[in-house]
Amino acid sequence: MIDPVTGQLWTTVAAAGVEDIDRAVQAADQARATWRRVNSRDRTRLLLKLADLVRDQIDVLAQLESRNVGKPIREAREEVELAADCFEYYAGAINKVGGQTIPVAAAGTSLTWREPIGVCGLIAPWNFPIAIAAWKVAPALAMGNTVVLKPASQTPLTALRLGELALVAGIPPGVMNVVPGKGQVAGEALVNHPLVRKVSFTGSTAVGSQVMRLAAEDIKRVSLELGGKSANLVFADADLDKAVPKALWSVFSNAGQDCCARSRLLIERSIYPDFLGRLTEQCQALKLGLPSDPQTEIGSLISQHHRDLVRQYIELGQQEGATLVCGGEIPTTPSLAQGAYLYPAIFADVRPQMRIAQEEIFGPVICLIPFDTEAEAIQIANHSLYGLSGSIWTQDISRALRVARAIETGVLSINTGHSVHLEAPFGGVKRSGLGRELGLAVLDQYTEIKSIFIAE
Ligand code: NAP
C-alpha cells in the first residue's frame, strides 16, 4: 500500500491468486448449510454483535480508512459509523421480511418463500471501502447467503478488519470471507467461479460491463453500481444560502471521488453570476490538509496516478474552451507537496456536449452550465450516458416534482445535496447500473423466490 499523503510504501498486503479465490469460494459453499441452520433470531444477534464491534473499533477503523484512502478523518468516522448502522439495519430486517400467500384461481393455496441465493461474490471500489463493503455484506448475510468479498486492491485494510470482526462476533468460519487481490486476477476468478451464484459489483462502468459479460456465462445474478455524472439543477427562486455550500459539498466531499458527485452544476442564467461568485469564494476558503487533522475539509486523492488523470481533465477543459475560475493546481506547501493533493476546481461557461461535462472525472471538479428554461435544464440533465444521482433546488414544489419526474436518474434530492440513506433504495439507471442497494429493496437481490402450490 502506498500512503497517498507521503507517496511512500506504508504496508504490504497479500494478493490472492485464482487458487486462493477457489479456496474462499469452497469455504463459503461449505458454510452455506451451517449458516442456513442459524435461526433468524440468532442471525440477528450475530449481525448486531458485529455492528457493536465495528462501533467499538471506530477509532482504529477510521484511522485505517483515512490513511489508506487519504480522506479526512471526520469523513472516515462517518463512514465507519454508517457501516455499523448498516449491520444493525439488516439485522433488524431478518425476521421482518418473508414470503406471501397469493389468491390464485385454482383450488388450493399458493405461497412463496424467500430463499438465500447461495455464495455471493462481492466486489468493492476504493472510494468508500468499509461503507460499500457493509452495504453488500450485511444484506447478503441477513438473507442467509455466504459471501466472498474482494476489496479494491488499493484499499483492502478495513475490509480485512471487518472479516476478523465477523469471526469475533461469532459468525461461523466460512460465512464471510475477505480476499484482497487484483481485479483482473482475483476479481475475474470470483465472477467466473461456478459455485458463485450472485455477483454484486461496485466500480466503474467499463469494468461493470465486463463483469456482466463474464457473469452471463452461468446466468449468475448480477447487480451493478457504476459511475455517474449527475446534475444539480438550481432555479432562480432557490435559497442560495443553502444551495451554494451544498453545491460545493455535493462534489468536493471525499475530494470528488464520489459516484454521486453532482459535478454538472446547472444554474438558471439570471442568478448565474451571483452563484458563481459565491461558489468561487467558498471554494477558495476550503481547507486542504492532512487527513488526520480534524480541521481538514479536503484530503488527498487516492494516488498520484489518479490525480494525473484528474489533471488531464483540467487541461482538457481549458482546451475545450471552458473557463477555469479557480483551483486545479497541485499545492506546493511543504506539508502537502508529497501527497496526491489537488486544489478543488470550478469550470464556468461549460457547454453540455464538452467531454468535461460528459465523462466522469472522479475528482474535485465542478462544471457550471447556464440554462434559460425548465425544459432546457431537463434536456441538459438527461444528456448523459449516466443516471445515478442529482439534485433540484427551487421553492416551487410543483416544479420540483415535475422536474424530478422528468429526470432520468435512480436517486434525486430536492433542496439538499444528499440522497444516500441507509433505509432508502440507492442505485442508477442507464450506464450507472443495474439493481438497487440499501433499504429493503436490496433484499430482493439477495434472495430467490420459490413458489409453492398446495392443492385442496
Ligand atoms: P474499478 O476500477 O471498476 O474497480 C472496482 C473493483 O473492481 C475493484 O475491486 C477492482 O479491483 C475490481 N476489478 C477491476 N477489474 C476487474 C475485473 N476485470 N473483474 C472483476 N473485478 C475487477 O473502479 P474503482 O476505480 O475502484 O472505483 C471508481 C468507480 O466506481 C467510479 O466509476 C465510481 O463512480 C464507481 N462507484 C460507484 C458507486 C455506486 O454506488 N454507483 C459507488 C462507488 C464508486 P482492483 O482494485 O484490483 O482494480
TrEMBL record:
InterPro entries: Ald_DH/histidinol_DH (IPR016161), Ald_DH_C (IPR016163), Ald_DH_CS_CYS (IPR016160), Ald_DH_CS_GLU (IPR029510), Ald_DH_N (IPR016162), Aldehyde_DH_dom (IPR015590). SUPFAM superfamilies: ALDH-like (SSF53720). Pfam families: Aldedh (PF00171). GO terms for molecular function: oxidoreductase activity, acting on the aldehyde or oxo group of donors, NAD or NADP as acceptor. Residues 2-452 form the Aldehyde dehydrogenase domain. The active site is at residue 225. Keywords: Oxidoreductase. Belongs to the aldehyde dehydrogenase family. PANTHER family: ALDEHYDE DEHYDROGENASE-RELATED. This is Aldehyde dehydrogenase. It comes from Neosynechococcus sphagnicola sy1. The lineage of its organism: Bacteria, Bacillati, Cyanobacteriota, Cyanophyceae, Neosynechococcales.
